[in-house]
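Lab meeting minutes (informal)
Scribe: AK
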Amino acid sequence: MLSKTKGIVLHSIKYSESSRIITIYTELFGRISYLVRGINKRKSPTKVAFFQPLSLVEMEVVHVPTKDIQTIKEIRIDIAFGGIPYDPVKNALALFIAEFLYRIIRLTVPDSRMFQYISNALQFLDCSSESLANFHLVFMIGLSRFLGFEPNNSDQAAKFFDLLNGIFEHNKPLHTHYLRDEKVDLFSRLIETDFFNMHQVKLSREQRNEQLDSLIEYYRLHVNGFQGLNSTAVLQNLFD
């Protein structure tokens, strides 16, 4: 079946000398793998630049639900980035987000609201002139709302945050997966903010790294098979 869909490139891996398998989160079909042939040939109409991590593309695809790997008939850049490819901070954040999404989004189930959230977040990252030090934290919290385990911040006076159950508690949980003291207060503030106001949440490098570690643990507890990320080390040394 021939269909048109927008997509967000998540990952690319070599298949042969001139072909690659590209993983794309699509608006119509969810996460899909595509075999792209002749991508490294000079005269190929399909350019490598189309498949950089987090590229926002528009495609005409041949979608056969029974196949594991689909075919792209035509592809073009939907929204071109003017900041991410050239700004070291934005580029590092984009590489982190790309790996994060690749490891988190597993199902071939479409979710237009989540797709739009990710697309809008990437466009904000590309254009923003404010501090982006908390971008990855706010993005991860925001994405959890679409995945079904949004933190419940109804009790802001609580002393503990239960990572296993996603709720704030006055009493210490009976397991080891929880935040307490200053970490709870900072986590609550991050939950309440958004991309436009996140620069107002002032964190030291140590505090920011602790919040990142906590969010990775939170996702590990709620997403089957998620074991962590390779790109965290870059972010941990990126911001003061």
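Next up, CB showed the second protein from the same session:
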Amino acid sequence: MTIEDRREREKRELHELILKTAAEMFRKHGYEKTSMRAIAQAIDYSPGTIYRYFKDKDELMFAISVNGFRIFYQYLSVVRHIDNPMERLQVLGRQYIRFAIDHPAYYDLMFIMPDPIKGIGEGEHWEDGHRSHTVLVDVIKECMQEGHFKGHDPIDLSLMIWGQVHGILALYLRHRMEMYTDKKHEVLLNDALEAFNSIIRNS
């Protein structure tokens, strides 16, 4: 590896470290209460180093969102090899939950916290965000072609299915399941998803 290659690798690693640390701090302390200086201190770099990568906190938040949806799309993309659309839809739900459990800070910022930047989901750089939604809508349309969900609109169904899975996840991530004591909460989370899958299989 050349010196230039090593420098490029170190730049990428620092870029990823900034994104990961900022996401965790935004989640823990809130976007407004987290400063660029605090993020720099958390990773033992000067604020000037952060500003070499991101001109301000809004740009950093946007980069976190773009990176989060890039990772999210990778999780959803594993269903592409599944021929049966109903099975593909159910695996999408499992992958959605897996992403949230593996990357809770990203999930919180992407789907739970109020959007701190107007228009963050707009523009040409939002490709993975739009593609992630398209994956769900397209598989619903394929399910409808095979006779499922008769009489419904695929966009309406996408919101209903997304909202159902997201709602269960939000309860889990926000520790709002304490009244359920018979099972470990992660087991309950997955069992609830499978119960929902059973309902939509028979629709």
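CB comment: The first helix runs from residue 3 to 29.
No objections, moving on.
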